[in-house]
């Protein structure tokens, strides 16, 4: 069962609609008890890093999620800020992230030479998947997704970068560490590319 984690952030219904159109069973969890039976998890998110961590903590689901993801290796896909909080920390806030994918979240404007870069990075952009990525199966040579963000994920190790895009610099727009996946772009807003990615995640 694909289960969308509803902790008050992100367009939950958009993900539900995609999976229903694909005839893939989907559920929404707002409590730890509702996570029971989940075989795949999606962690959406919009807004600020610290606020997302606080909302996840307040939901009461975090301890159960950590057990499922870290101990039982249930695949999880973080999206947008849901991807960013997979990191250890962020330039945007002071709270620690989940630390499921080693790295930090940086502001584009913290990079020398990019202080005048227009932010947010908003709109469609090309994505270059890592070779053999199961998440991008079927559109390795033509992948475009919708972005809306001002911070980017910097992996501690290059092997955790699942795909790159470019906005002022090349950055990791998708990450992976074992069963933990993240996408900075919005698959739920990315038409057939996003539908294909969410279908691939369901079939991992």
Automatic annotation (TrEMBL):
Pathway(s) this gene product operates in, as recorded in its UniProt entry: Amino-acid biosynthesis; L-histidine biosynthesis; L-histidine from 5-phospho-alpha-D-ribose 1-diphosphate: step 5/9
Known catalytic reactions: L-glutamine + H2O = L-glutamate + NH4(+); 5-[(5-phospho-1-deoxy-D-ribulos-1-ylimino)methylamino]-1-(5-phospho-beta-D-ribosyl)imidazole-4-carboxamide + L-glutamine = D-erythro-1-(imidazol-4-yl)glycerol 3-phosphate + 5-amino-1-(5-phospho-beta-D-ribosyl)imidazole-4-carboxamide + L-glutamate + H(+)
EC id: 4.3.2.10, 3.5.1.2
Active site, per annotation: 80, 186, 188
Keyword Membrane: no
Keywords: Amino-acid biosynthesis, Cytoplasm, Glutamine amidotransferase, Histidine biosynthesis, Hydrolase, Lyase
Taxonomy, superkingdom: Bacteria
Pfam families membership: GATase
InterPro entries: Class_I_gatase-like (IPR029062), GATASE (IPR017926), Imidazole-glycPsynth_HisH (IPR010139)
Primary location group: cytoplasm
PANTHER family given in the database record: IMIDAZOLE GLYCEROL PHOSPHATE SYNTHASE SUBUNIT HISH
Physiological role: IGPS catalyzes the conversion of PRFAR and glutamine to IGP, AICAR and glutamate. The HisH subunit catalyzes the hydrolysis of glutamine to glutamate and ammonia as part of the synthesis of IGP and AICAR. The resulting ammonia molecule is channeled to the active site of HisF.
Subunit structure: Heterodimer of HisH and HisF.
HAMAP family attached to this UniProt entry: HisH
Protein name: Imidazole glycerol phosphate synthase subunit HisH
Originating organism: Pseudomonas citrulli
Gene that produces this protein: hisH
């Amino acid at each position: 069962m694909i289960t969308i984690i509803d902790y008050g952030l992100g367009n939950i219904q958009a993900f539900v609609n995609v999976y229903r159109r694909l005839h893939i069973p989907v559920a929404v969890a707002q409590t730890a008890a509702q996570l029971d039976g989940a075989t795949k998890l999606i962690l959406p998110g919009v807004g600020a890093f610290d606020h997302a961590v606080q909302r996840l903590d307040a939901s009461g689901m975090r301890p159960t999620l950590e057990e499922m993801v870290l101990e039982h290796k249930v695949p999880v896909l973080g999206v947008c800020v849901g991807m960013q909080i997979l990191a250890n920390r962020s330039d945007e806030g002071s709270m620690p992230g989940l630390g499921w994918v080693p790295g930090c979240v940086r502001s584009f404007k913290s990079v020398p030479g990019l202080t005048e870069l227009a932010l947010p990075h908003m709109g469609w952009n090309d994505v270059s998947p890592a070779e053999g990525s199961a998440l991008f199966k079927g559109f390795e040579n033509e992948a475009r997704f919708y972005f809306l963000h001002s911070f980017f994920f910097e992996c501690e190790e290059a092997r955790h970068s699942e795909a790159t895009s470019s906005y002022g610099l090349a950055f990791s727009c998708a990450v992976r560490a074992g069963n933990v996946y993240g996408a900075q772009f919005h698959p739920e807003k990315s038409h057939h590319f996003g539908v294909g990615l969410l279908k691939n995640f369901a079939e991992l």
